Amino acid sequence: MNSVLEQVKTFAAKAHGEQRRKFADEPYIAHPVRVMEICATWSKDVAVLAAALLHDVLEDTAVKKVELQNFLNGIMDAGKAQRTLLMVEELTDRYVKASYPQWNRRKRKTKETERLEKTSAEAQTIKYADIIDNSAEIAYQETDDFAIVFLKECQALLKKLDKGDPVLRQRAVDTVQQGLAYLQRK
User: Could you tell me the CA-to-CA distances from 137 to 92, 95, 131 in Å, in that order?
Assistant: First the structure.
């Protein structure tokens, strides 16, 4: 991992702090690192890989956009910093329960899918990697009906997100399908 990505990983790890993964007993930062590693099979672009490491920071931590922007501007040239920030913003859920408490999960996910459908090819590719990692983890760790709901949401999302890398997209589709098949056999 190059020095810029090491700095990004350190920033993301600090931002996520003591957070743990919901379906695996590990520090949260393990997930963004895996997402970045999956993306690295497709791209060596530092902005893409940094966005993969940071994809949950604005959504799941106290870090604000201006703080993230200042950090990125301090370690990257302005163009890469701006691209990274844009991808992180594209990947940050907007239709969350806290902001839309009157909407049920299905409506929030539908709106999120409509929003993500308009994102860049790079952001969609990072989302594929996110789905690959989350789906594999949830399908084989989760014991209640949430895993099926989650995987079906991923399946619906992947039907709409078609601008990213086709190889990673197919890998995400296959991972979700395998997870659903596993859960149906259980």
Answer: 20, 23, 10
Which pLDDT value is given to residue 161?
98
Q: What is the pLDDT of residue 54?
A: 98
Q: How many other CB atoms are found less than 10 A from the CB of residue 120?
A: 17
Tell which residue, 151, 139, 127, has the closest CA to residue 185.
Answer: 139
Q: What is the pLDDT of residues 144-155, one digit of tens each?
A: 688 899 999 999
Coil, helix or strand at residue 9: helix
Rounded CA gap, 54 and 13, in Å? Answer: 9
Residue 159 dihedral angles phi and psi, to the nearest 5°: -65, -30
Superfamily of domain 3-185: Hypothetical protein af1432 (1.10.3210.10)
Calpha distance 26→6 (Å, rounded): 19
pLDDT at 154: 97
The verdict on pTM exceeding 0.85 is yes
* Whether the predicted pLDDT of 24 surpasses 80: no
Region 34-59: what's the mean pLDDT? 97
Tell me how far CA of residue 113 lies from CA of 16, 116, 124, in angstroms.
Answer: 25, 5, 11
CA distances from 83 to 34, 55, 161, 179, 180 (A): 21, 13, 20, 33, 35
Tokens encoding 9: 């990983």
